[in-house]
Amino acid sequence: MELKVSTRSHAGQALVAITGEIDLYTAPHLQSEFTRLLQDGPSRVVIDMSGVDFCDSTGMNVLLSALKRMKERGGALDVAAPRPAVRKILQVTGLDSVFTVYDAVPQELLITEGS
């Protein structure tokens, strides 16, 4: 399955919307998107996972790597709107206590184009 990643940035914050499956085959694409995004230097990144059907350990490692890089710069990386299967993975692995997990994308990040 294809992985789609779209990013919107505004006022030092970025919303990364992911659609598809994050696994061994698609994780490198996500990794390169995070590398590109973090060069822009946002202080906060929220990952909208409402479109993610599946995420394996490779995908979780990509998220952890991005979180580590953000924390090294004094920033934050949060997870929003994970589907039940992804939320269960976060809970089973204990990563729900590592990431801040929101039930929905925070309202302040739901910016419209041109604002």
TrEMBL record:
Organism: Nonomuraea montanisoli
Record PANTHER family: ANTI-SIGMA FACTOR ANTAGONIST TM_1081-RELATED (PTHR33495:SF2), ANTI-SIGMA FACTOR ANTAGONIST TM_1081-RELATED-RELATED (PTHR33495)
Stated family: Belongs to the anti-sigma-factor antagonist family.
Name by which UniProt lists this protein: Anti-sigma factor antagonist
PROSITE patterns the record matches: STAS (PS50801)
A single GO molecular function term of this UniProt record: anti-sigma factor antagonist activity
Domain STAS: 3-112
InterPro entries: Anti-sigma_ant (IPR003658), STAS_dom (IPR002645), STAS_dom_sf (IPR036513)
Chain segments annotated as coiled-coil in the UniProt record: none
Residues making up the signal peptide according to the UniProt record: none
